[in-house]
From TrEMBL:
<dbReference type="InterPro" id="IPR043128">
    <property type="entry name" value="Rev_trsase/Diguanyl_cyclase"/>
</dbReference>
<protein>
    <submittedName>
        <fullName>EAL domain-containing protein</fullName>
    </submittedName>
</protein>
<keyword id="KW-0472">Membrane</keyword>
<feature type="domain" description="GGDEF">
    <location>
        <begin position="281"/>
        <end position="415"/>
    </location>
</feature>
<keyword id="KW-1133">Transmembrane helix</keyword>
<feature type="domain" description="EAL">
    <location>
        <begin position="424"/>
        <end position="677"/>
    </location>
</feature>
<dbReference type="InterPro" id="IPR052155">
    <property type="entry name" value="Biofilm_reg_signaling"/>
</dbReference>
<dbReference type="InterPro" id="IPR000160">
    <property type="entry name" value="GGDEF_dom"/>
</dbReference>
<dbReference type="Pfam" id="PF00990">
    <property type="entry name" value="GGDEF"/>
</dbReference>
<dbReference type="InterPro" id="IPR035919">
    <property type="entry name" value="EAL_sf"/>
</dbReference>
<feature type="transmembrane region" description="Helical">
    <location>
        <begin position="159"/>
        <end position="184"/>
    </location>
</feature>
<feature type="transmembrane region" description="Helical">
    <location>
        <begin position="15"/>
        <end position="37"/>
    </location>
</feature>
<keyword id="KW-0812">Transmembrane</keyword>
<dbReference type="Pfam" id="PF00563">
    <property type="entry name" value="EAL"/>
</dbReference>
<dbReference type="InterPro" id="IPR029787">
    <property type="entry name" value="Nucleotide_cyclase"/>
</dbReference>
<dbReference type="InterPro" id="IPR001633">
    <property type="entry name" value="EAL_dom"/>
</dbReference>
Amino acid sequence: MNSKLNIEQRLGDRILWWLLTIALLCGFVISAAQVLVDARRVSSDLETQATETIAMVEDAATKAVFNIDSDLAARVIKGLFAADAVHLARISHSDGETLASHDRPLMKAPHRDLTDWIFKAQRTYQAPLTRDDSDTVYGYLEVHYDTAPAANTWLNRSVFTFASGLATAGILGLALYFVFHLLLARPMEKVIRAVKAVDPEHPDGRLIKIPRGHQRDEIGLWVNATNNLLVAIGDSQERHREAEVRANRLSQYDQLTGLPRRETFMEILQKDIEQARSDNQVLSLMVCGIDDFKSVNDQCGFRVGDLILQKLSDRLSTTLGGSRFSLSRLGSDQFAILEKGIQNSFQAAETADQVLACFSTPITAESQTISMSATIGVSMFPSDADEADRLLQSAEQTMTLAKQGGRNHLQFYVARIDQEIRNRKLLEKDLSEALARGEFHLVYQPQIDLETRRISGAEALIRWNHPSRGFVPPDDFIPVAEANGAIIEIGQWVLEQACWQAAQWAAKGIDIRVAVNLSAVQLQQPDIVEDILETLERHSVPAGRLELEVTETSLMTNMADAVDKLEQLNQAGISIAVDDFGTGYSSLTYLKKMPVQHLKIDKQFIRDLLLNDDDTRIANTIVDLGRSLNMSVVAEGVETAEQEYYLSQRGCRLAQGYHFSRPIPAREFETFVHRFHGQFAENNV
């Protein structure tokens, strides 16, 4: 700040210097002009004085020459020397002879050299002496004037002129500087000092005052413009600070729910772990994942899904309020809950039950009431992990594995989860190589027409014989294949093998429909319709020989897209069946929109048929629903003759299960078909 002030002061000094220099220069020029004019006037006065002096004595000098009167001439000469400026006077005849003459030395003066250069040392004047009645020249009057007296007077006046002129110019320059300082420099200095006093963080907090008397001039306009600029800068800074606050909040908190994001929650978790470690306390960390939330978004729309997440967040915040709990939205449909100061895992389980109740209570959003559930994974500090990232990872892994085992329950982390995760990773690796190594094969389970007692179709089921693991159940590797996308290649292989086998059976006279499962991942592929039709054409299999089984979940993933693709396949002649019907999410609402010909009752409802009233009622409802929609109903998992008889009486058209045959290889299936039809013929005979 001081350096800036010094610069301003030097600027004022330069202005003063320039003003004085210009003023003195102007004063010098004007004074010099006056001196020159005065010099001209002095020269003119010398000429006039000489002319007048000669005119005064011209008659007397003429008489003296005419009369050759030396005394008169001497008196004339003496009269001329009464003037101090006369240096020499002479009266002479026309032939040059001197009648009377006198001189005196030139006046000595200190500045004679200067004045002699300007006015000359002496000036000579000569006048012819004549009479009025004649033009005859009788003689001459010669006068030499010394310029020193007049020059000294001129020089004194010149010195005074220069001194007064320069003094006047200096005074005028100082006066101008004073006016400049009073009207401009001092107000500017006040404004500059006020600007220096402005707080850069809050520039509009201390505006500049307009100097007195400058409200309507340029300084006033400058101050007003500066104040407007300060206000604008202050507003801009305030908006910038607000934007930074919003940006920081967006980066630290979830915009939808207002809960801390994962990164912010990790910082909170790390601090709480450090505090719990120093206080020797126990923490529980719960990761909650909503079950099948994607179906809610697909059915109700993403806006309703966002409203549900907001209301769930409010419920959790209300239920788990206080400093004991820290909540976070980890992403999508997952929430994290940290509970501090607990005694044991039983207390954590009680909290988890409250959380499950929050999720299971129906939510109303935009006139729709939605029921849902959640699955929770729980890890404990310090028993399960003593680092923040490891503790969260343990809870997330536990939740992921818990979802594979069912819905609406909680599971605590145990050491074997790490082994399960490693086993899953190894399974993914082996699965990626299984197809290339030829470890897959298909088996076929016959579908029986309960009215005609004929085999109407066969469901193609994939099997995996691992070289070291042995038989790997489909329920173990199919979810993994769907999760990592390997199901696309595997599903295409199954379709290829099933179509090839259907062509082989047709060549042998076994004209049956082959059912192939189509996963949700396959159905989402943009070219799935073309791939299926090309496969049928490649193996010369009529479209009517192929049946595609889709689950309710795959239908609900993207309703419009699924309906469009299934319509194209159905129009080509392919039959569509809904597999595991009754276990999905509210599919009854959309069933009539689907190009579906068959409903397959899930085997869990057939297992306790006639033993469990609820399962019996569900099976009856599905059979009645299929008949009302003109769809064939296929019962899976039929294992007893009683179940077969009951389903047949209820109007169920098709059935499959161990009561008829387990899934068998293609060669055994051919033998089974011939034997089954032969036994039926024998029984009829």
